[in-house]
Amino acid sequence: MSENATTEAIRLAAGDAAPDFTLPDANGEDLALASLRGKKTIVYFYPAASTPGCTKQACDFRDSLESLLAAGYQVVGISPDAPAKLAKFAAKEELGFPLLSDEDHAVAAAYGAWGEKKNYGRVYEGLIRSTFALDEHGIVEVAQYNVRATGHVAKLRRDLGLDPK
Fold first, then answer.
1. Is residue 56 classed as helix, strand or coil in its secondary structure?
2. In the 8-state DSSP scheme, what is residue 35?
3. Contacts of 94 (CB under 8 A, 6+ apart)
4. Secondary structure of residue 31 in the 3-state scheme
5. Res. 4: pLDDT tops 50
6. Closest CA to 130 of 90, 15, 117
7. What is the distance between the alpha carbons of residues 57 and 73, in angstroms, rounded to a whole number?
8. pLDDT tens digits, one per residue of 60-112
9. What element of type H or E holds 82?
10. Active site residue: 49, 54, 108, 127, which one?
11. Is 59 a catalytic residue?
12. CA 59, 106, 43, 122 torsion: positive or negative?
């Protein structure tokens, strides 16, 4: 195995077809990306429900949801959490968009949102906070990796041309 084999990850870019998926939501019901076609969709990956950074990020999407919907974008959050944990998180934070459970990380890996992370000198595998804006046909418009939990939605809105730069 080459030295880079474990560190190279899939990275999506504008123009790529978003990998299809079907995942359980907070109620345990399957949601397929294909069922969202026809509308623009923001898919964001976050490490863990109810943690400080992920709560800030989810609430930022919640607080921006009306304007994102008005601009034609629906929002879907994906984490490795079990549906029951997602249900508690969604209820507590009054999130108005689906949260999906990717417990085996397969979807995150397909999007390049699962891979090597470094924290305080320690290297490990984990979820890379990432966001993807997809057009009505499931084609990536914007792919952002290693995003910050705070201020991310404002940057995404600027990158999508929804707000002045």
1. helix
2. G
3. 62
4. strand
5. no
6. 117
7. 17
8. 999 999 999 999 999 999 999 999 999 999 999 999 999 999 999 999 999 99
9. none
10. 54
11. no
12. positive
